[in-house]
Specification:
There is one protein chain. This protein has helices spanning about 10-25, 35-45, 60-75, 100-125, 150-170, 200-210, 220-230, 235-250; strands at about 5, 30, 50-55, 80-85, 130-135, 175-180, 185, 195, 215-220. The protein starts with a strand and ends with a helix. The chain has a single domain, classed as NAD(P)-binding Rossmann-like Domain (Rossmann fold), CATH 3.40.50. The strands form two sheets. The protein has a seven-stranded parallel β-sheet, sandwiched between helices. Helix 1 (about 10-25) links the parallel strand 1 and strand 2. With about 250 residues, the protein is α/β, with parallel strands linked by helices. The chain is globular and about 55 Å long. The structure holds NADP nicotinamide-adenine-dinucleotide phosphate. The site of NADP nicotinamide-adenine-dinucleotide phosphate (NAP) has 27 residues, from helix 1 and helix 4.
C-alpha cells in the first residue's frame, strides 16, 4: 500500500486523522515541527499494529518539505495521498493590524500547503494517480470581522483547491477541500457555536478522504448558513455579519 503524508500531525485534527488512517491500514508519514509529539504518535500507531514515520519539518520551508517527502518515501514508499492540515490562526483586529501577523498566517496556511503540493504533485502526475486533501475553514467563505488574516488565508486555500481540481481533472489526481466550522481540540476552552468534538470531526474528514469527495463541509447547520451567506448580496451580508458580531461582543 502507498503512503499518506499528513501535515499538522503533532496535535489536534491532524493527529487524530493520522491515527485513524493508520488504524485503517494506511501507512502514514507524520509531519509537523514538534518532534517529540510526532514520535509519541508513531509509537502509538506502531503499538496498535499500524505503520508510521515521523518527519519533523516546518512546512513554510520548501527545502525542508522536499527533504521530508524524500525521507518519508524512502521509509514507507511513494506518497499516494497528501493531507495538508498544518495551519491555524489568531485574531487580527483592524485597529491593531500588523503585516507581520498576516505574513505568518499566510505563510503556514497558504504557502505551507503550496510547498507540500509542489513536493508531491510531479510524481503523482507521472504515476497518473494521487489525492490532494487541503484544509480550509467555514471562516474562509466570506470575510469575517476580527480574523481578517485567517479568513483571507483560508479563502486562498479554497480557491487554490478549486483551481487544482479543475486543472487536474482527467489526470488521475483528486482534490478534496475540507471546510469545518469550530472543532473542539482544546477541551479546557469555552465552547463555541455548533462546535464539533474532535473525534467526530476526524471521522467526518477520514470518511470524505476515503471516498475522495471533492468537498467536506461540517457541521451541517453552520455549513448551510455559510453557504447561504456566500450567496447574499453584499449589503445584506454586511448588515447581518455586523449585527451578529456586535451581539457576540456584547
Ligand atoms: N480547530 C478548529 O476549530 C478548526 C476549524 C476549521 C479549520 N481548522 C484548521 O484545521 C487545521 C488544524 O487545526 P487544529 O485546531 O487541529 O490546530 P492545532 O492543534 O494547533 O494543530 C496545528 C497543527 O499544525 C502544525 N503546524 C503549525 N505550523 C506549522 C509549520 N510551520 N510547519 C509544520 N507544521 C505546523 C502544528 O504542529 P507543530 O506546532 O508541531 O509544528 C500542529 O500539528 C488548521 O489548518 C486549522 O486552520 C481548525
Amino acid at each position: 500500500m502507498q503512503a499518506t503524508l499528513i501535515t499538522g500531525a503533532s496535535s489536534g485534527v491532524g493527529r487524530d486523522v493520522a491515527r485513524r488512517l493508520a488504524r485503517m491500514g494506511h501507512p502514514v508519514i507524520a509531519v509537523a515541527r514538534r518532534r517529540e509529539l510526532l514520535d509519541s504518535l508513531v509509537a502509538e500507531i506502531g503499538d496498535a499494529g499500524g505503520r508510521a514515520h515521523a518527519q519533523a519539518c516546518d512546512v513554510t520551508d520548501p527545502g525542508a518539505v522536499r527533504e521530508a517527502v524524500q525521507k518519508g518515501e524512502a521509509t514507507l514508499g511513494p506518497i499516494q495521498r497528501l493531507v495538508a492540515i498544518a495551519g491555524g490562526g489568531r485574531k487580527t483586529p483592524a485597529r491593531d493590524l500588523r503585516a507581520s501577523d498576516f505574513e505568518s498566517i499566510f505563510r503556514v496556511n497558504v504557502m505551507g500547503t503550496v510547498n507540500c503540493i509542489e513536493a508531491v504533485l510531479p510524481a503523482m502526475l507521472e504515476r497518473r494517480c494521487g489525492h490532494i486533501v487541503t484544509m480550509g475553514s467555514l471562516a474562509g467563505y466570506r470575510g469575517l470581522p476580527a480574523v481578517g488574516a485567517y479568513s483571507a488565508a483560508k479563502a486562498a486555500v479554497h480557491n487554490l483547491s478549486e483551481s487544482l481540481r479543475l486543472e487536474l481533472r482527467g489526470t488521475g489526481i483528486d482534490v478534496t477541500l475540507v471546510t469545518p466550522g469550530f472543532i473542539r481540540t482544546k477541551p479546557h476552552k469555552a465552547r463555541k457555536p455548533f462546535q464539533v468534538e474532535l473525534e467526530r470531526a476526524a471521522e467526518r474528514i477520514c470518511g470524505a478522504i476515503l471516498l475522495r469527495r471533492p468537498y467536506c463541509a461540517f457541521p451541517m447547520p453552520l455549513a448551510f448558513a455559510s453557504g447561504v451567506a456566500r450567496c447574499l448580496p453584499h449589503p445584506v451580508y454586511g448588515w447581518l455579519a455586523r449585527s451578529l458580531w456586535r451581539g457576540r461582543k456584547g
